[in-house]
Amino acid sequence: MTDDLSSDFADAPGVALVVGGSGGLGAAIAEMLAARGSDVAVTYRSNAAAAQAVATAAEKHGARATAHALDVSSAEAGAAVVAEVAETHGGLHTLVYASGPHVPMVHLSTVSPADFADQLAQDAAGFFNVAQPALPHLRETEGSIVAVTTAATARYPVRDGLSSAPKGAVEAVVRAFAAEEGRFGVRVNAVGPGMLTDGMAARLIGSGELDDDALAITRGNIPMRRFGSAADIAEAVCFLASNRAGFISGQKLDVDGGYSV
């Protein structure tokens, strides 16, 4: 096995599909996959320009890259995009689920059942809507799935239930798929981001939902006393998707500076 990371996916058949690739974490993951030898396909819900920018960045690494519109809450759309991507790129070796709407930090007692059901549909069901139709393609390539969830399913911060509860469902499905699909050579894992300077955390900071006092408390609860970045998440995702993690399945890797210990 070579130590050259740029060749991790050079011989992988087909493409890596990054669902939610137009977002902060998804963009970093897509570009790192491209830098390590993979063609990439990214999905977006409404921001076509952002997705195309990610594809363009991937192409600078020599990758073939495409962007696809997708509402993950639609099972039909999920199946159609997976089929389109696999046909366009000649197969699928990796599915990365890095999708999810902005989730405000609120107490669950203030969340309506309708809003909770909507979050489950967009996140937990959304994951299933792309992962399930991807399985036949991943069986052909003995590929892998990596779901980006949250460290909050290991250590719960108050007011994060609207995010961590659906992500907990995603992690349960990750373990179930890992148990069922290993006989076909398919591996399924999860990465749990902690507090980051990118992605959801950046939006919470920008919206004022986390003020300076809250940020100081949060930083003090992290053993490494700092926040992570999108690149930290991308490193974990790319490792788990690569053959370097060839005997790892059904696991969750928290990238949280030690928050969940």
Structure description:
The chain is α/β, with parallel strands linked by helices and about 260 residues long. About 45% of the residues lie in helices and about 15% in strands. It has helices at about 25-35, 50-60, 75-90, 115-120, 125-140, 160-180, 200-205, 210-220, 230-240; strands at about 15-20, 40-45, 65-70, 90-95, 145-150, 185-195, 250-255. Helix 1 packs parallel to helix 2 (about 50-60) and helix 3 (about 75-90) packs parallel to helix 5 (about 125-140). The longest helix is centred in the middle third of the chain and has 21 residues, at about 160-180. The mean pLDDT is about 95.
List the main descriptive attributes of the protein structure presented here.
about 260 residues, alpha/beta, 7 strands, about 45% helix, about 15% strand
Question: Could you outline the blueprint of secondary structure elements for this entry?
Answer:
Elements: E1 15-19, H1 24-35, E2 39-44, H2 48-59, E3 65-69, H3 75-89, E4 92-97, H4 113-122, H5 124-141, E5 144-148, H6 161-181, E6 187-193, H7 199-207, H8 212-220, H9 230-241, E7 252-255
Parallel strand pairs: 1-2, 1-4, 2-3, 4-5, 5-6, 6-7
Helix pairs in contact: 1-2, 1-9, 3-5, 4-5, 5-6
Short overview:
The chain is α/β, with parallel strands linked by helices and about 260 residues long. The protein has helices spanning about 25-35, 50-60, 75-90, 115-120, 125-140, 160-180, 200-205, 210-220, 230-240, and strands at about 15-20, 40-45, 65-70, 90-95, 145-150, 185-195, 250-255.
